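Budget justification aside, the reviewers requested a transparent look at the raw inputs and outputs of the sequence design task funded under Objective 1. We therefore reproduce one unedited record. The lines immediately below are the structure tokens for a 136-residue chain.
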């Protein structure tokens, strides 16, 4: 029984490490999204703006995967703590504000990605119109 409990603890530790990794990747991707988008907007270059949109969308996906893993790891911890009590235990838990912040961050990341890609499409259209209006 002791080895099964330690194996369960190792699984939970690996789950938390995965949560931290996905959240860090998401944070770094959002940071680079902001830098790349700013460079694209200031220099009026469409390709960095598209790259920023894709980076923002990927950051949102990493964020949601990390928080889905957070929910699973949180439930596993609760179940492992109360597993010895049998089937009669009842426990309620709350994810707190982290779950609300995850959805808010995901929505803002998606909105930023949509705005970046829209900026790319609009700048590409204007550039195309400028090229066709030039005399040959």
């Amino acid at each position: 029984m002791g080895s099964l409990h330690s194996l369960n603890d190792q699984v939970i530790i690996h789950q938390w490490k995965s949560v931290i990794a996905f959240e860090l990747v998401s944070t770094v991707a959002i940071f680079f999204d902001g830098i790349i988008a700013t460079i694209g907007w200031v220099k009026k270059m469409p390709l960095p703006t598209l790259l920023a949109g894709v980076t923002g969308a990927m950051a949102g996906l990493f964020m949601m995967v990390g928080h889905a893993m957070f929910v699973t790891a949180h439930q596993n911890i609760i179940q492992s703590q109360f597993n010895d009590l049998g089937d009669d235990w009842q426990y309620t838990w709350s994810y707190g504000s982290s779950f609300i912040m995850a959805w808010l961050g995901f929505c803002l990341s998606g909105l930023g990605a949509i705005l970046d890609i829209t900026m790319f499409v609009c700048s590409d259209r204007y550039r195309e119109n400028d090229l066709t209006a030039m005399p040959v």
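The mean pLDDT is 76. DSSP finds three helices and no strands in the chain. Computational costs for records of this kind are itemized in the attached budget.
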